[in-house]
Amino acid sequence: MANGQALGAASHYSRGLEIEQFVGDGVMGMAFQAISEYNQSPVFQTLVTQGQTDEPVFAFNLAYPDAELYIGGTNRDMYIGDFSWAHVIEYGFWEVTMDNVLGNGQVVLTNIAAVIDTGSSLIHGDPSNVATLYEAIGGAYNNEPNDRGIYTFPCDAVPSVSLTFGGTSFPIPPAAFNVGTTADDPSRCIGAIIAGRFASWVVGSVFLRHVYTAFDPTNVRVGFATLA
Fold first, then answer.
1. Which residues make Cβ contacts (< 8 Å) with residue 24, sequence separation at least 6?
2. What CA–CA distance (Å, rounded) separates 149 from 95?
3. Long-range contacts of 177-184 (CB under 8 A, 24+ apart)
4. How many CA atoms lie within 13 A of 169 on its CB side?
5. Which residues of the chain have pLDDT under 50?
6. What's the pTM?
7. Phi, psi at residue 62, to the nearest 5°?
8. Which of 21, 74, 85, 228 holds its CA 20 to 30 A away from the CA of 56?
């Protein structure tokens, strides 16, 4: 129990958090106090400060049906091998350096600032680098006005894409990278990496479902390991 934990009441919600779309009771922030609207300690840091965790680490397995948030360490049954660690480069969100992005086995992008975000579903990248990636793997920009930032590729030629953190490359399975066909052409499929609005990338669950991820606020780093 996090005694005396500060909570915030929201008066405005994005559409994805409206009660018709989101049946939970709220959103629990797991990043750093620096981005707290109330300048209050996040719940995990409160638990650590009060000595209620075995280790000052929390970890996620987002793979169905065994998804879990593990508080106070890592669940050794859920991953194999060692963690590859990436250090946080700016306090606030869990923002680290992504060593590179591989497309079809070749390094396409290097040294990308990336926020690790369990609350995002896809991977959002800066428009310039995302365009470079899809040019290298045979994708094309979708010009439909309601599909901003989306790139497509032939459904019978799903590209191989991997993200590298801490010196280890982790693949995005083709079935995950392909998020479905376009509305106007069933032979074209949509890629899981889309062009966003920010300079930093946001790496969401389309990648995180396929790795075990540990967050270490004491050593200010994020670790990735292969799922068991």
1. none
2. 22
3. 177/206, 179/122, 179/206, 181/155, 182/142, 182/144, 182/147, 182/152, 183/144, 184/144
4. 17
5. none
6. 0.93
7. -100, 10
8. 228
Q: Rounded to whole angstroms, how far apart are CA atoms 186 and 24? A: 34
The predicted-structure confidence for 36-66, as pLDDT tens digits, reads as follows: 888 999 999 999 999 999 999 999 999 999 9
| Token pair listed for 60 | 């996620």
Q: Note whether 182 and 189 are within 8 A (CB).
A: yes
- Which residues, in sequence order, are bridge partners of residue 212? 61, 225
Q: How far apart are the C-alpha atoms of 44 and 48, rounded to whole Å?
A: 6
Calpha distance 42→226 (Å, rounded) = 28
Beta-strand ranges (E) seen in the chain are 58-61, 68-71, 79-90, 95-103, 106-116, 123-125, 140-141, 151-154, 161-165, 168-172, 178-181, 188-191, 193-195, 201-203, 212-216, 221-227
Say whether 204 sits in a helix, a strand or coil: coil
Task: Return the H-helix or E-strand segment holding 127.
Answer: helix 127-137
Type of residue at 133: L
The C-alpha atoms of residue 57 and residue 85 are separated, in whole angstroms, by: 13
